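User: I'm writing a short report section on ligand binding and want a predicted complex to refer to. Could you take this sequence and magnesium ion and write out the structure as tokens? A short remark afterwards would be nice.
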Amino acid sequence: MRLLEVSNLRTTFRTEDGIVTAVNGLSFGLDAGETLGIVGESGSGKSVTALSIMRLLARNATVTSERIAFEGENLPDKSEAEMRKIRGYKIAMIFQDPMTSLNPVLTIGEQIAEAVRLHLGAGKSEARDRAIEMLRKVRIPLPERRLGDYPHQFSGGMRQRVMIAIALSCNPALLIADEPTTALDVTIQAQVLELMNDLQRETGAAIVLITHDLGVVAEFCKNVLVMYGGNLVEYGTAEQIFSRPRMPYTQGLLSSLPRLDEREHRRLVPIKGQPPNLLRLPPGCAFAPRCAYRMPICDEPVPLYDFGEGHVARCWLYDERAREQRPESQQSLPTVAHT
Amino acid sequence: MTNGALVEAKELYKYFPIYAGLTSRHVADVRAVDGVSFAIEEGETLGLVGESGSGKTTVGRLLLRLLPATKGDVRFENQDVLAMDRGEIRRLRRSMQIIFQDPFASLNPRMTVGEIIGEPLRIHGLASGRDVDERVRELLKLVGLQPYHANRYPHEFSGGQRQRVGVARALAVSPKFIVCDEPVSALDVSIQAQVINLLEDLQARFRLTYLFIAHDLSVVRHISTRVAVMYVGKIVELADRDALYENPLHPYTQALLSAIPIPDPLLEKRRKRIVLTGDIPSPVNPPSGCRFHTRCPVAFARCSVEEPPLREYAPGHFAACHWVEEHGGQAPQLT
Ligand SMILES: Nc1ncnc2c1ncn2[C@@H]1O[C@H](COP(=O)(O)OP(=O)(O)OP(=O)(O)O)[C@@H](O)[C@H]1O
Ligand SMILES: Nc1ncnc2c1ncn2[C@@H]1O[C@H](COP(=O)(O)OP(=O)(O)O)[C@@H](O)[C@H]1O
Ligand code: SF4
Ligand code: SF4
Ligand SMILES: [Mg+2]
Ligand SMILES: [Mg+2]
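Assistant: Sure. The structure tokens for the complex follow:
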């Protein structure tokens, strides 16, 4: 049994302009202790996916799915009271901006203790000890003294470490980290990632790391899910995704990126055009308007092709049926079975 | 510094006073830029990197005199920028322009894109009437937009398109020098590359000179000729692009470079990271001596008392570090 198994998740929002389809039939899963990176550009549905699983979405949202199984139990079947027990206890979440998720009028100590008391039923002094222990774990100097401080008295990097302390205080089985380092400077990002790495090794929690930074994914994640227009377009191990990307969007992302180790000046190859309009997602490939290999068949719903060892990509180029239509440059591609 | 530089800053300072209490007493200063010197040659791109709050934006604004300097000297084509009167400053703005980080905040939402791009033409009397429209259409095409976009409002554009509008506005007056302040930081990678290529093309075509401010060191390596690294209001290292990336001397530069993850999992497995402890110090109360001594893995006694000067250790390669000085221009081995 996988720790988390999401199948056919669809999340839409009612807006003044019409129905926004933020997540469009997404399926994925992860095992206990695994690190999964979810990458994709702004608006591709990464955060909405996380919030849909946690049932933390705004009122204008409609979420449907076949199943969102966590430890074998279907989350959409849970009552709100049951969900409250799961959130923060079994599944913890940290966000890009720690200031919005920390309560500004409670001390850091109170916030950690509250989580521990609520979920672990710990007594007062036990909760305080746990709070000190957690602050020490996230390397806040002099934790006993910092317990009484308020969030604004901490720097951005420290606040994010406090968030991690709160998130991990109840030993969650799954931590969903949504852009946890995006607002931080690189030297502070390195501290936070190292910390998450150490704590994960220690606690065995699975981590879903949502980010737009492909470097962070390469450093941190075992598996990678690439999202585009609200759906999975490619999935595989970090090595598969970075050394043998199959979907033209993934390929495009990698070649549009300047690299720190770039010795020769290489002209970047941008992806032309704009991200898709979520008010009008096409039935076929959402990337088609920007794709250099677009074929007539691309306007039809795209199956998921299986490249072996877990590597899958959503692109017609690999279909036997598209053989005739493929552009000259892509004739030598293999055709594979779809899932 | 070099002769024939297009832009030159010497011992440039900017302190922002902090007032407190009922009497608004002057209690301290944010020492945003604290004695910075560099020169930018015609046609080159000087990259300016550093973490947030290190003073990059302030340097850019001082050069254009969008902010008054506390003290120091700024030269543009050997003219004394800080001594200019209002008329001279207005003329200067025809030669020096800026592109801002936030493509959402930097365009007036009530003006059409055509009005935004045409405004500098009118202000500087470079065109009037029909000629403005003609020039606006030209500029739109130049930055990869369509002439009909002139009638639209900024909110109808994506981030990348808005940044193109910002570039067109800066180019309207045919400047020689552009401060690009984090021009791609707010953009998605796929769009970032479009704007970077555009800036490169325009530079080649019009022989533009850039000060390219960014915190993304990969982007800076790609676009710069030389690179300066700032830490808490000071330049700690300045060198040719490849020298800086391949052979960084200053411990902070080394740590900064090692902290950037590279999108290559096999390489990442082999890379050793220098993880600094502690936070970035406040520019209100910068550490004594070398500002980096509170986080530097090789700091020694001298570092907390004596400020290291920016010295040239190889032709064109400057660093401000006592360790490097005492080791004959060698960089410490930190990993
Ligand atoms: N409450 C809401 N009402 C309407 N639309 C929404 C709402 N929340 C999110 N959306 C839309 O859903 C889409 C997906 O949003 P999401 O936040 O998941 O993007 P993301 O991939 O996390 O992007 P980013 O990288 O910018 O964080 C976007 O178009 C967003 O504007
Ligand atoms: N108008 C201002 N008033 C007071 N402090 C300022 C002002 N502008 C910038 N600062 C401060 O100066 C320092 C350097 O800022 P800035 O040049 O914007 O840094 P960077 O661009 O490197 O992030 C920061 O501490 C910032 O808060
Ligand atoms: S399905 Fe077609 S349009 Fe989509 S990525 Fe593949 S080739 Fe391009
Ligand atoms: S001067 Fe001293 S503290 Fe500063 S960088 Fe060099 S060795 Fe480190
Ligand atoms: Mg998001
Ligand atoms: Mg800035």
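A remark for your report: Chain B is about 30% helix and 25% strand. Residues 189-206 of chain B form the longest helix (18 residues).
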